[in-house]
Amino acid sequence: MITYSIIKKSQLEGAHRLDTEYYQPEYLENRKILERVANLRRLEEISAYITNGATPYHEDLSIGDIRFLTAEHIFDFFIDFESSKYIKKFYHDGELKRTRLGENDLLITIKGKIGNAAVIFNLEKDTNINQDVARVVLKKGHNPFYVCAFLNSKYGKLQSERLSTNQINPFLGLGNLKLIKIPFIKEEKLQEKVEEIIRGAQREFRFSKSLYSQAEQLLLEELGIEKLAIDDELFCTVSAKEMKETQRFDAEYFQPKYKKLLIYLKKKFEIKKLRDLVNIKKGIEPGSEKYQEEGKPFIRVSNLSKFGINDNDQKYLTDDFYQELKRNYQPKIGEILLSKDATPGIAYVVKESIEGIIAGGILQLKLEADLEPEYLALLMNSLIGQYQMERDTGGSVIVHWRPEQIRNIYIPIIEKPTQKKIASLVRQSYEGCKKAKELLEEAKQKVEKMIEKGGRNHADFPN
Fold first, then answer.
1. Which CATH class is domain 9-184?
2. pLDDT tens digits, one per residue of 226-239
3. Residue 252 pLDDT > 80, yes or no?
4. What is the dotted CATH code of the domain comprising 210-418?
5. What is the pTM of this model?
6. Are 150 and 136 in contact (CB under 8 A)?
7. Which residues, including other chains, have CB under 8 Å from residue 321's CB and lie 6 or more apart?
8. DSSP conformation class of 236
């Protein structure tokens, strides 16, 4: 069905935007709803400072003392500090001084996956940002947690989308970012309630990560990996026979640390190849022409993490196409999803029913042995799985972990009681993460309900 809008000349917003995307019905309806709310303020009116960062020219972003965040590290409400890049302090104190992050700074993604917002708090290390992230410092009296919740709500997201340019690789310039309208709520209790919910969600998430770390620690202690010296070495000697047997001639594959780890595991534990433990099935790649704005989720590698499935730059398939594919490509509870492309080696055990289809960059692993799925997934995410992935994919320009390589990775089998302890910790971690997401959804819904009621104070914000 064709979607269209009829716009009067008087309704055109100057001569700056005459493109049809800007006047889509959903954007016009969003504007109409927001205009019913009293005290709308542009982001620039409530901000003391809005800027974005930069990437030091020709720098190795794996070296340095300062954490360096890109748009890939900013999600709705959350910041992924663990996988951040790094820059030298020289840049942090020099040309990037304006984007040195501080407590209560608001970060907003402005390129690629635009409009994701998160607040900096409990900052433990010096951190900076690149050009794809905006740093917003709000004026006194404006709660960054409330503004963050609004920006992540549907009313904030629709504005970000509308004001962005370039449909293929969306970009929200600082000039347009400043034009986003925020409902200014005078009652401090309303803003404080949203802040309380978001802080509570962050506590749940930190506790969840702590439980996962405990599971990782228990695994490494059981395997004795912590006491094993497997540091990088400058060189090694490899025979022609080894190269012929492996059909690998690149130095990365023969790094001594990989061999040393596998020799150790084979001596200490029963070892199985992954193919003997699971049935492996690859997802599907229907092509970008099948992507829809709504429908059933198409789960790609960018949607997968060891803590669950997110809606990062979510793509969708039609309901009819989903029905056609779901028998073979819909993940089931208890299965392990494992990424093989782009960022290979991410493993996650499906905990809830998912009405969606997995992409070709993800494998479905169905257990066929008496093994705790959480134990196997944790093992894949740990040094044991990651070393084998690095060995197999080393030397590749485009990182791609082939299914035949994955089938042949080695899995150490530990005693069942310890597997169960590890699985229990991972499940508790998942529950904490789930609770955090529920709280953040609650924060968004409270802001959305307030807007739909014209910005008035209601019981949606209890004391």
1. alpha beta
2. 766 555 554 555 55
3. no
4. 3.90.220.20
5. 0.82
6. no
7. 286, 290, 295, 296
8. -
